[in-house]
Amino acid sequence: AWGSSRTAKPRARWFAIAEAVGLAGLWSALPTYAFATQPSQVQVVIGGAMAAMITTALALAAVPAAALAWIGTLTAAFCLAYYFGSWTLEPKVALSFILVAGAGAFGVARLTRWIFGQLDGLARTRAQAESVRLLLNEYEHRGVGWLWQVDAENRVVYISSRMTALLGRSTNQMIGHSLPASLGGTSALGRILLSRQPFANLEMELKTRRGTRWISLSGDPIIDMTGAFQGFRGVGQDVTDVRRTQERLTNLANMDVLSGLPNRGRVRQLLGEALSGSAGGEAPCAIMFLDLDGFKPVNDTFGHPKGDVVLKSVAQRLLKEAGQFGQVGRMGGDEFAIVIKEANSRRLVESLADRLIAAIAEPFHIDKAEVRIGVSIGCAFGPIDGHSVDDLIQKADLALYQAKAMGRGTCRFFNADMQNEAEDRLRLEQDMRAGIRAKQFRLLFQPLISAADQSLAGFEALIRWHHPTRGIVPPNHFIPLAEETGLIMELGEWVIDEACRAVATWPEHIQVAINVSAKQLIYPALPNTINEAIRKYRLQPDRLELEVTESIFLGDSANAVDVLKRLRTLGVGIALDDFGTGYSSLGYLNKAVFHKLKIDGSFVREAANNKETVAIIQSIIQLAKSFRMTVTAEGVETADDFTRMRDLGCHTIQGYLFGRPMSFEKASELVHGIQQRLSA
After folding, report:
1. Where are the beta strands (DSSP E) in 121-168?
2. 403, 362: one domain
């Protein structure tokens, strides 16, 4: 009635205090009244009884104020009895009374603290239990997951209805049955439950009426107060959607979106797995690198969306031919790869390469147009050619480089010579960079002679590299490397400046021709570079002639033609060099960019003994006349060659008959010597 804690209402607390004072007064009235008239022996008994009554305040410990009121009232009564009584207590008896009363007061204080501690702990436990109950209800009813509990024998004691619904069973069908057996007899869960250790996020595959589902279970062992194991209690969750999302993300991370093939990263993983198997004593593995030939013009002509259609078709053809032998992947752009885990023989890989080349060579159809491309392949074997993924990929790439250099549409297998060539190429690149800084490059000039009167019409500027240890490095060795590394731009700018500087010192009727790489035409800044050189040396633009080969039409032809048109606008001459030996460029002759065709020296040499070659030369000259172009014959070495080319209609002649490439100083002597003879 008095309340049970400090949180009791003030009115109830005051009522308890008043009741304690009243009862204490009643209980102490008789002993106090009778105390003075009793003999000393009885007084001792009465005093002890009153001291004992003080200790009964322990019963009021729940209300400390009431307990203190009880003790205070009894103590006051005892003091009054002692004061008015005519008796003398022995010190030890008085001490015992004091100790009993003090013990009572101390006990009240200690017991009060303990009771309040217990009550507060109980209140917190109840609050926590209520919070847990609310959270568990929220967990279940919001569809986050479900609860489960098993006994020491792994039999189901409790399981949420959401779990039974997922399994397509009723709760009664689950209660009392083995949880691992109910979930399909999964051994992993059985082993974990037998270990009696906490576990978390154990994922299991379930076959349900809704199809395959994935669940995740977590649980903790139940241990009673005696330390005995009583079973497990835990939570579960359907993680099917999460797992599917993870699988989709994994696929996106490992698959090429366009083709659906494994991407570069996944190809590396597959190669690593194959290499590990080969290192473990299994058959050698192989990696094939494939690069499409002639794919860029397809993109340029039809656009990237149509180019993507071709790439998808290429992927399908590769899968059809190589799918049963290895994993086909796309490395990016127009590059593909095939990982063969068991390359038991080189002949098998060679045969596959032949089939792949033939399959890609078959025409593709875009918007009713027939498109033909090719493929070059480089191959390396592991662990024969390399013991790591990076090493093997590098070797296959070197082999692919060789396949491209051999004329495309071929397959090359890595060998040690390729590595040596690659290292030499790297050293040559480093030497070239140093050579440009050290001014090791020189221009030589070969005369161009008028066929009509054999007068000097100009020179072709030819670059040479005087290497301090290699000696004279041929242009066909360093020009392709300069194009690959981008050094062609720096080298080309030097050639333009040096040639313009040279021709500026010669009479105005003398021209100079400069060879321009197809790579240089990629850069729109080339016309600006040439215009600056012309202005720098105050040249008439028609004194400068740029020679390009038919290879410019194999790359970004539209951009190349645009740059050539800008150059023609400057007034610079454009000559098509080695005409008839490469890509068929007849369709570009009507673009009004060329003013000259140059007949390759091979035609000139063969014309002496081959009538068909003479007919070809006649056709070229007639074609040039149709487009109002002039014609230069290269490689003229004999007087008969000169007479034949002149009579066929060539305008200018170039070859050893009239001079080999010479230094600027000797070229200047030739120019000024002719001028002096003309003046005389």
Report:
1. 146-150, 156-159
2. yes
475 shares its domain with 538: yes
Same domain, 614 and 516: yes
159 and 298 inside one domain: no
Residue ending a domain, choose from 89, 120, 151? 120
CB 307 within 8 A of CB 385: no
Give the predicted TM-score (pTM) of the model: 0.55
As a whole number of angstroms, the distance between CA 397 and CA 418 comes to 10
Give the residue carrying structure tokens 């200690």. 110
Region of 224 please: left (phi>0), alpha (psi -120 to 50) or beta.
beta
Q: Let me know whether 521 and 556 are in one domain.
A: yes
Calculate mean pLDDT across residues 343-372: 91
Which DSSP string corresponds to 325-340?
TSEEEEEETTEEEEEE
Cα 543-549-553 angle, rounded to 5 deg: 120
Q: Is the peptide bond before 383 cis (omega within 30 degrees of 0)?
A: yes
By residue range, what is the domain housing residue 65? 10-120
Cβ-based neighbours of 649, under 8 Å, separated by 6 or more: 618, 621, 625, 631
What's the mean pLDDT in 305-327? 92
Pairing type for strands 511-515 and 573-579 reads unpaired
Same domain, 32 and 158: no
Number of domains in the chain: 4
- Which of 244, 274, 292 is where one domain is finished? 244
Q: Is 352 helix (H, G, I), strand (E, B) or coil?
A: helix
The answer to whether residues 195 and 300 belong to one domain is no
Among 323-332, 558-567, 611-620, 622-631, the range scoring the smallest mean pLDDT is 558-567
Q: Residue 468 has what DSSP assignment?
A: T
Mean pLDDT of 321-330: 90
Q: Phi and psi of 100, rounded to 5°?
A: -65, -45
Residue 540 and residue 671 in one domain: yes
Distance CA 265, CA 252 (A): 11
Grade residue 1 by pLDDT with cuts at 50, 70 and 90.
Answer: very low
